[in-house]
Amino acid sequence: MSGFSSEWLSLRRKADRRARNKDVMKKFCSWLVEHAPKSGPLRLIDVGAGTGSFLQDLAEHIDSNREQVWLLIDNDPELLKVAKRISPPLPHTRTKTDVCELTDTGSLDILEGHHGVVTSAFLDLVSANWLDSFVARMRQLKLPFLAGLSYNGILLSKPHHPTDRLIQRAFNQHQATDKGFGSALGPLGGFHARERLLKAGYTCFTGRSDWVCAPEDDALQLELIKGWAEAAREVGVSDAIVDDWLEYRLAALGKGKSQLQVGHVDIVGLPPH
Fold first, then answer.
1. CA distance 189 to 247
2. What is the mean pLDDT of each run of 10 residues along the chain (273 residues)?
3. What pLDDT score was predicted for residue 2?
4. How far is Cα 161 from Cα 163, in angstroms, rounded to an integer?
5. How far, CA to CA in Å, does 104 sit from each of 87, 97, 100, 123, 129?
6. pTM above 0.85?
7. Alpha carbon of 107 to those of 130, 150, 185, 187: distances in Å?
């Protein structure tokens, strides 16, 4: 699995929180409160949890008077160390962490014993085969599922440059390369998950959760622009084309005129009764 630094996760934190689709999150939380056992704590598991930011955003939408126990799993122990240091958002919320080799579908047995499964910015990294196994295991356990911020292939930039579409296509091509699970679904991750959930008998709801980066989000924009340029080079776009595009985008950013939009979709899957 391709790793992400805690610095990058911190940099994107505000954009993530702004973008999350609250209607989709509420569908998941309402189902969870209604259908989970009334006694004992609600037990949730965050797959590919990173530093635990989804917990911070989601816990407040669940019954604040109900005890919540979150298991955060990731293959990166350094990110989970950061998660451990962050105080839970509610008094009745407890967190545990577990380093887990997520690329091994055998690790999915860890889902058992929980009342709900969540993940964020993860489905675009995995392969179709891995995601099929993931959905099948959730279906066996009749678990509700919430996936936030799955990249959907849309990149919009202002002011416009003639090479924007070429860079977008190159980035999307790069997103489909192996991230540790086999050929990644990339921009198709969210769509594939919805299709498989529906086929498994789930009821699904989706909603857009785009990042909208204004000029004041200059630090995040800088990392995005540099990342898109690097990805374009890695899939074979010529240095001359990338350099021209990069110079234009950085100039717009320096003048405080750059705006970026990164498309995402949030998905909730509710199991059949």
1. 31
2. 73 93 96 93 96 92 89 95 90 94 93 97 96 98 98 97 98 96 96 98 98 96 97 98 98 98 98 90
3. 45
4. 5
5. 30, 18, 9, 15, 11
6. yes
7. 11, 22, 20, 24
Number of CB atoms found within 10 A of residue 105's CB: 15
For the chain, count helices (H), then strands (E): 10, 8
> What does the DSSP assignment read for 174-199?
HHTSBSSSSB--GGGHHHHHHHHHHH
Supply φ then ψ for residue 120, to 5 degrees. Answer: -145, 135
Query: By three-state DSSP, how is residue 255 classified?
Result: coil
Supply the DSSP symbol for 52.
T
How far apart (Å, rounded) are the C-alpha atoms in residues 270 and 273? Answer: 9
Return d(Cα 93, Cα 64) in angstroms, integer.
Answer: 9
**Length of the chain as a residue count:** 273
Give the DSSP letter of residue 88: P
One-character DSSP codes across 114-142: -SEEEEES-GGGS-HHHHHHHHHHHHHHT
Rounded distance between C-alpha atoms, residue 70 and residue 52, angstroms: 10
Q: Which residues, at least 6 apart from 9, have a Cβ–Cβ distance to it below 8 Å?
A: 50, 51, 53, 79
Rounded CA-CA distance 132/23 in Å is 26
Contact 86, 56 (CB under 8 A): yes
Cis upstream peptide for 159 (omega within 30°): yes
Residues β-bridged to residue 117: 45, 145
